Amino acid sequence: MTDLRHTPIHPLLSRRSSGVLLHLTSLPGPHGSGDLGASARHFIDWLASAGQSLWQILPLSPAGAGHSPYQSVSAFAGNPLLVDLDDLVRCGWLPWAPNPGFEQRSCEFDRVIPYRMGCLHTAWQGFQARASHHDRNELADFCRDHAHWLDDYALFMVLDRLHGAPWSHWPTPLARRHPEALASVRAEHGADTGFWQFVQWRFWVQWQRLRGHAHTRGVHIVGDAPIFVAHHSADVWAHAHGFLLDDTLEPAVVAGVPPDYFSATGQRWGNPLYNWHAMADTGYQWWKDRLAHLLRQVDMVRLDHFRGFEAHWEIPATEPTAISGRWQPGPGMALFHALAQALGPLPIIAEDLGLITPAVHQLRQECGLPGMRIGHFAFGDGPDNPYRPHNFEPHTVAYTGTHDNNTTVGWWQSLGTTERNAARHYLGAGMDSAPHWTLMRALSQSVAHTVVFPFQDVLGLDGTHRMNTPGLASGCWAWRFDWSDVGHSPAEDLYAMTQAHGRLPAPR
Q1: Please, are residues 236 and 75 in contact by the beta-carbon 8 Å criterion?
Q2: Fewer CB atoms < 10 Å away: N or C end of the chain?
Q3: CA end-to-end span of the chain, whole Å?
Q4: Is 99 part of a structural domain of the chain?
Q5: Cα 325–chain centre separation
Q6: Residue 492 bears catalytic tag
Q7: Under 8 Å CB-to-CB from 212, ≥6 apart: which residues?
Q8: Any alpha helices (H) in 13-108, and if so which ranges?
Q9: Which domain holds residue 251?
Q10: Does residue 2 have a pLDDT over 90?
Q11: How far is CA 316 from CA 242, 269, 348, in A?
Q12: In which band, very low, low, confident or very high, does the pLDDT at 260 lie, cut at 50, 70 and 90?
């Protein structure tokens, strides 16, 4: 099979650049969570003023259990909570009304979700009553263009409301997708499926408008593709043959990672695993469709858990922990060769963290994809540690930390004496006064083509502001900031550092 490492590196990954990691829900705004509205455009303007050319976000898909964007009911749909309500007011479909008042520095999901979904239902009613002929035609065109995923998603959401989770417990004709049963639901609940199509249309229109604004400011969007999908999802329901399910349509085996230094029982994520043989028989069409759809939304993709494409940890679904799992081969180069043939040079960042074997390194290199290096991981070992900046390869994306890590200030405060001394010796005394800027500067100075900094690090925030703590079932994903927290200095300092290290966007 053709080695992809000799194909041209995607232009966005082949030059020195700098960016910021911030999910859309963390943006300020009056409606309880960040969205695709004015604050998102303002953040893009802020990035441009700071000399940044990349905005990395988390998955755009609807959040699932624990409000995690990595457990979604659809790998294709946009999160309804991100729809800009003010846009619906301007369209004349949603009456303006003051919101009930929300916490400005946290997403109160239990209050925000019913409020925002209620507004979307009201807007749908307004659209049905008052939409112009032009708008109705645009919605119809969107539904036709996206029918390959939208029809199943909209029907899934209606059935979820009618029958609940999991879909494998729905009446057999619906769970097994008998055509006459599905047609009956569509006929009886056409307005309900129309609502979910309407919401996705507005998400798409607003997102493309926002992405267009980003491009006018020289900012490109880095999206995120979780490797696995939730069992209770339109994807698994509509493509059950592509997953390892038992006779009852429940997962026979589930995803996770084995025991390690951090967990004696490993991590049992619970996602169904792919039937890679069945996927191969279709030419990996679902994956082609998924990535093509995502690349209509973003400019680059962080591909989560890349090592799972070489081999994944397979856990019997009956096991409560990951201890009794085993390694099973993934699709390897066959998948990436199929994707490159369909889509051309792949603008993919391989999330190659965790237990990375020589075989995983080889696969990433054969794919011609940059890996990730995390500054927080650099000081637990000696000078050969691959996360130390002097060991970086140019074709690398370097982060202080990710959404799963502590903030850099929080990380520094939590370090033991040995690692703290190692970091001081390597990075200098600046670690004691400004650990975030000191680590950011070391990464920015490195040969890595791309550096990305969590916005919390740019602002110098402590560990109370982290986005996610892996293993916690609740209390994550809620962090937000307010523009009053930002001031002028972070943008000025970030611009100066980006300019000094040759990472400013190319003149347009």
Answers
A1: no
A2: C
A3: 39
A4: yes
A5: 26
A6: no
A7: none
A8: 38-49, 85-90
A9: 4-369+478-500
A10: no
A11: 18, 12, 31
A12: confident
498 and 52 in contact (C-beta within 8 Å)?
Answer: yes
Task: Considering the candidates 108, 151, 393, 404, report the single residue annotated as catalytic.
Answer: 404
The residue among 490, 403, 396 whose CA lies nearest residue 446 is 396
**Tens digits of per-residue pLDDT, 433-484?**
999 999 999 999 999 999 999 999 999 999 999 999 987 888 899 999 999 9
Q: Which of 235, 351, 366, 457 is catalytic?
A: 351
Q: How many domains does the chain have?
A: 1
Q: Which amino acid is at 254?
A: V
Residue with tokens 């940059």: 370
**246 an active-site residue?**
no
Catalytic residue selected from 87, 304, 352, 366: 304
Residue 107 lies in a domain: yes
Better pLDDT: 129 or 355: 129
What is the number of alpha carbons within 13 Å of residue 140 lying toward its C-beta?
8
In a domain, 470, yes or no: no
HEC string for 81-122: HHCCHHHHHHCCCCCCCCCCCCCCCECCHHHHHHHHHHHHHH
Q: Are 352 and 372 in contact (CB under 8 A)?
A: yes
Q: What confidence score (pLDDT) does residue 473 get?
A: 80
Please state, in angstroms and rounded to a whole number, the distance separating the CA atoms of residues 144 and 137.
11
To the nearest 10 degrees (0 to 180), the angle between helices 435-445 and 489-500 is: 30
Q: What pTM, to 2 d.p., does this model score?
A: 0.96
Mean local confidence (pLDDT), 273-292 = 98
Residue 299 is a catalytic residue: no
Residue 146: give its domain's CATH number: 3.20.20.80
Domain-embedded: residue 465: no
